[in-house]
Sequence to fold (611 residues):
Amino acid sequence: MARYETGFDQARQLLRSRSDRVAYGLLALTLVAAPWVLPNYYIGEATFILIMCVASLGLMMLTGFTGQTSLGQSAFVGIGAYVHVVLLTNGMPFPVSLLLAAAGAGIAGLLVGMPAIRVSGLHLAMVTMAFAIVTEHVLGRWKSVTAGHSGLSVPDPAIFGFSLGGARLFYFVCLVVLVLALLLLVNLMRSATGRAFIGIRDSEAAAQGLGIDVARTKVIAFSLSAGISGLAGALLAHQMQHITPEAFGLALSLQLVLMVFIGGLGSLRGAILGAVLIGLLPSFISALKDALPARVGAQFGLELFVYGAVLTFFVLLEPGGLNARWVRIRKVLGEFPWVRPSSIHRTKVYMKSERYR
Amino acid sequence: MSATFFELEHLSLSFGGVKAVRDVSLSIAAGEILAVIGPNGAGKTSLLNLITRVFDASSGSMRFNGRDISRLARHDVVRQGIARTFQNIELFEGATVLENLLLGRHRANHGSFFSQMFNLPSVQRAEAQTRERVENVVRLLDLAPHRHRPVAELPYGVRKVVELGRALAAEPVLLLLDEPASGLNPDETRLLAYWLEDIQAELGITVIMVEHDMSLVAAVAKRVIVMDQGQVLTDGTPAQVQTDPRVIAAYLGT
Fold:
């Protein structure tokens, strides 16, 4: 399996080997074929997971790559959703409205980011959490635009009068948006901006010494992350069909944090894997409920318990998240049958604790 | 080259009542290797931090290549051609050696945010060029075996070399090294001495290094300044400063 590089551009290539191309080709085929074989209910579930993948990618930019904790991601999802629905209701074409929703959330991210990046770690988590709470309240009270807690109903998505509202068509809309967003972010992460994000996460002192404007780059990360989340929000609005402020509360923020953490901080693949796992969990739990003895299955808080158990499992046993596990499995498969136990074991890595200046 | 390549004039730094650097004036010629030695707390690292604008000088000024750099933004220092390493290695732990080195060349133009997003041909060319330049550093410092390894896995000695490489990738004219040999074994230190000679002779980079290891200082530095309690005690060749009674007094504590 040894591969040799023969050109400077090779390390930047996306699909480096034939097995990569085959694997991603099969994945693409599966995703395209899925809505033709799945019943409608599961198409809806799959669409929801695709949207969560987009939102999770947004938070991964900020928390996973730039190292900035945010508990306020739900606010940006909500802003994206509301901007999109209000514009759509006022006759804006669907694709334009989608982009403006992302831009609107991005601008909100810029405005919050500029003061917020002055603090870091736990303090930043508190600031962003406060922003999420405030946003939920504003959405609830600004009745002339948002119709308050009674909510807004979401028009069907349509391009040139052609409705995309059917479960199958909307699945493909979400798939296309996810793939495009993923490609743009992959490009960014293999360029100077992506490296600057990682630089800031790992050592601000060194980053500044190498010419990275830390404040500016953090604001860019914040705004980009908010914009992607806003895009997810716009799609989510269609999935919900009726949006209320409560749908964009702290619970959503926490779910997103769970996704990027369990997926594996600092990896786009991790963001996707985490979103898929957390997105599947509710269906899994309801299936579990039926299988369990009635007394256990009917227990209140079973879902929270499973969330907590999954998180604990990853914190203790796989801090690198699903992505780290995936990388190791792939390594074992690649080296089979010459697997050495030492190459599977996790190398001991000591996390650098938060830096105080 | 002119003698006014880099000039520090009456530089002072105080934190509250503590005077870390007191009225330091220095003139550094292009192409020299200057070692800064002195007991702990003498203000050596503070001096480097003043030059790289981590701290604002309480008074005094710095002129680099005829330009006043005493009020520069911290991230603009490297654009003047000044790169540094840190006393306690400050590598990007979550990235590979290659990514660390590529980040070293961050100051080069890699295209705008949106052209990076769409991976335009101009970005691809810039990235390929950066990789090519970084490979020169890989070759110089023998880092090829570690190229794709995550920094977190590397032993201490290799990390030191990677940090030196990252500073070199910035293509500086002035290199500031904060204790490059600390924690290295004698073999690694000897290797470092060869590299420093190459860096000075072949790449024409001026080096200011804070160092305790006198074997390294004597091997590469033609000029040594000794600091104590924020002041420059003496300035001369390694042999001269080692016999200076004030230096002996500073180290032994009269």
